[in-house]
From TrEMBL:
It comes from the Eukaryota. Pfam families: DM9 (PF11901), H_lectin (PF09458). This is H-type lectin domain-containing protein. GO terms for cellular component: cell surface; protein complex involved in cell adhesion.
Length: 481
């Protein structure tokens, strides 16, 4: 029996020369290699791969005993001809395994996935009629390889993870010397990949909609505000936060200032007021406002406001309460106040379970009075189970506009939603000249469970100096618009 102890001290990384476990080796030790998913680096890097697998989720091994009780998942890694069992988590940079009695981090590893109810932990006596999960092998000599299975044992306040030869354990050999431990077994036969999807729990409690001000360009005045009352199709269970973003912008070049702010007010269970306003010398001829009411209890959202004259801001957004593991984060502009240069972009970095860094960059000649950024954080584990949301981007990069000033493309999601999603789009990078009108339209079409088409269009005399980048949030909603 081999146990891999999960300890509190930071392990020393090893440079594994073996790389990933080969498909040939995998075929020797298991009937279904697809249950182990390849990972390099943080576990967040495998979210898209897991999302392609219907009803798949990470197999829970246990949790840490620190203040945040991070969840741990079953993992394995190759080293010097053997496959070693261990654990991984969103808070780790790799898989924790033990090699020659020393715990280390493997940057290349595999994580076990499967249907949510397929696996469970049992004592050997309780697992006698069940199928154990094959974890790897240990080379005994040049002619003999011993299969090992996944087990765990509670020691003090923690749990150690490792492998066991169940061919002997099932016959009761040396059980007294080992003490009580549990083996990972299949609680039922693996589900077919085409099995029916979940019905009720996979819909996010989110409402999305759009607002287009009803105004004529001949009546536009500088510093105008446009407001409308939005009524939900059905009352919310509680007053929910609302985020905004824009997909249409038509601003005149009077005074070479780009000033616009989108915001909700008077939010109630049945309705709220949605505003699009400008100030100073800015003329807002038209805009398109996307809004989303976030009622999903496990999501976090908010608006970050920054001001000042620096070329780079870095502000910290915090999650309250904190997540158990790093989430996916969506961010877009909901307010702009710039002169001198219309080149502005945002980046989300350093995401962990407590928050994220938001970097806002502009050119040296640009002057900024205000930036408002709407953001949404979605737990990655939940997305894998419910497949009800995803985040991505498209932009004018490496594309040439046609004679009408249009950029077009398609997005293939990489896995199939269980239902047709709703789309919330926003802009996180613009770069226009200041001596012309800023006229921009972003639209999506042919939205399905697997992808969509998109279009970015400028018109009239608008000049795009660099690029426009659009960030999108796909949501399978709970049936409301």
């Amino acid at each position: 029996m081999v146990f891999n102890a999960e300890v509190s001290d930071a392990p020393e990384p090893l440079g594994f020369t073996d790389g990933m476990i080969s498909d040939v080796v995998l075929g020797q030790i298991e009937e279904n290699p697809a249950e182990w998913v390849r990972v390099q680096g943080t576990l967040a890097n495998v979210l898209l791969d897991l999302a392609r697998r219907p009803n798949a989720t990470l197999v829970r091994a246990g949790e840490t005993t620190d203040a945040y009780t991070h969840p741990l998942y079953v993992a394995r890694a190759a080293h010097q001809g053997n496959i070693h069992l261990g654990v991984c988590g969103f808070h780790l940079t790799g898989a924790r395994i033990t090699v020659d009695g020393r715990e280390t981090i493997a940057s290349k590893y595999q994580v076990l996935v499967g249907p949510q109810d397929e696996f469970e932990w049992r004592t050997p006596s309780a697992a006698a009629d069940m199928v154990p999960v094959k974890g790897g092998f240990l080379e005994q000599d040049q002619f003999r390889v011993e299969l090992v299975f996944i087990c765990r044992q509670r020691v003090g306040k923690g749990i150690v993870y490792g492998s066991v030869d169940l061919s002997r354990a099932y016959r009761g050999v040396n059980l007294d010397a080992v003490g009580d431990y549990e083996v990972l077994v299949r609680s039922q036969a693996p589900q077919d990949q085409d099995s029916p999807p979940l019905e009720a729990c996979d819909k996010a409690q989110v409402m999305v909609g759009k607002f287009y001000p009803d105004n004529h360009s001949a009546h536009v005045k500088k510093g105008d505000r446009y407001s409308t009352a939005v009524y939900f199709n059905a009352p919310l269970k509680a007053v929910s936060p609302i985020i905004t973003g824009f997909d249409i912008l038509d601003i005149g070049n009077h005074g070479t200032a780009l000033r616009m702010r989108l915001y909700p007010q008077n939010i109630m269970k049945e309705t709220f007021i949605l505003n699009a306003e400008t100030w100073g010398e800015t003329y807002l001829y038209h805009c398109g406002v996307n809004w989303a009411a976030i009622s999903e209890p496990t999501w976090r959202c908010g608006v970050l406001n920054v001001d000042g004259g620096r070329s780079l801001w870095k502000v910290r957004g915090t999650f309250s309460p904190a997540f158990q593991s790093p989430p996916m984060v969506f961010a877009c502009f909901s307010g702009l106040d710039m002169t001198g240069s219309f080149n502005w972009r945002i980046h989300v970095t350093s995401v962990d379970h407590t928050g994220f860094d938001l970097s806002i960059l502009k050119t040296r000649e640009g002057k900024v009075g205000l930036a408002s950024i709407s953001w949404v954080a979605i737990p990655g584990e939940e997305v894998l189970k419910r497949k009800n949301a995803w985040i991505g981007r498209f932009s004018t990069d490496s594309l040439s506009a046609d004679k009408n000033g249009e950029y077009t493309g398609s997005v293939k999601f990489g896995f199939e939603f269980r239902r047709d999603p709703k789309i919330f789009v926003g802009v996180d990078h613009i770069d226009f000249t200041t001596d012309r009108h800023v006229r921009l339209v972003v639209s999506t079409s042919n939205v399905s469970k697997t992808g969509m088409d998109w279009r970015i269009k400028k018109w009239d005399e608008t000049v795009l100096k660099g690029r426009v980048r659009v960030t999108w949030l796909w949501i399978v909603t709970n049936g409301f618009p």
